[in-house]
């Protein structure tokens, strides 16, 4: 479970999130909708600890992200909209390294890397580098990076942006499989209302720095 309690985030004099509260239950598939500039990406950065907050708290399974950062962050995987690829490691070695960094032994990391590559249908591209992948494959690799440490909660920021229709359908099926077969809790940020409607069992709308509608 992810609980956001009375969260306030400012950038200098600009109020981005104001007393924002939200509960995401275990195995929810929650869609987050809102126009540009209302704080959707900032909210993700707060949840992942990238941004410091002014007020409030974020709880993962009842434990504060700020009091127990290592333990709570291991339960979260995030896929940002922008590509993030390592120039020096192929995708197999990148995933294995990330798995070990998050506490898996070498043998566990190898096993988990094989599992994840198969899940995202990139097992035949294991020795490729991120910049060698097609657009749809890059998205799948980004998702692979977000789940390599087997987190309970997956957060995705506009995962289908810039992807053609066929690749979108493949991506949607992957997300549905993660939710139903691996029992992941998913927070999906999207501009596409049909995407939210087809994938999510809950949806919220942010307006004027606050939760406007659920």
UniProtKB/TrEMBL annotation:
<dbReference type="InterPro" id="IPR050763">
    <property type="entry name" value="ABC_transporter_ATP-binding"/>
</dbReference>
<comment type="similarity">
    <text>Belongs to the ABC transporter superfamily.</text>
</comment>
<dbReference type="GO" id="GO:0005524">
    <property type="term" value="F:ATP binding"/>
</dbReference>
<keyword id="KW-0067">ATP-binding</keyword>
<keyword id="KW-0813">Transport</keyword>
<dbReference type="GO" id="GO:0016887">
    <property type="term" value="F:ATP hydrolysis activity"/>
</dbReference>
<dbReference type="Pfam" id="PF00005">
    <property type="entry name" value="ABC_tran"/>
</dbReference>
<dbReference type="InterPro" id="IPR003439">
    <property type="entry name" value="ABC_transporter-like_ATP-bd"/>
</dbReference>
<dbReference type="InterPro" id="IPR003593">
    <property type="entry name" value="AAA+_ATPase"/>
</dbReference>
<dbReference type="InterPro" id="IPR017871">
    <property type="entry name" value="ABC_transporter-like_CS"/>
</dbReference>
<dbReference type="InterPro" id="IPR027417">
    <property type="entry name" value="P-loop_NTPase"/>
</dbReference>
<protein>
    <submittedName>
        <fullName>ABC transporter ATP-binding protein</fullName>
    </submittedName>
</protein>
<feature type="domain" description="ABC transporter">
    <location>
        <begin position="2"/>
        <end position="213"/>
    </location>
</feature>
<keyword id="KW-0547">Nucleotide-binding</keyword>
<keyword id="KW-0614">Plasmid</keyword>
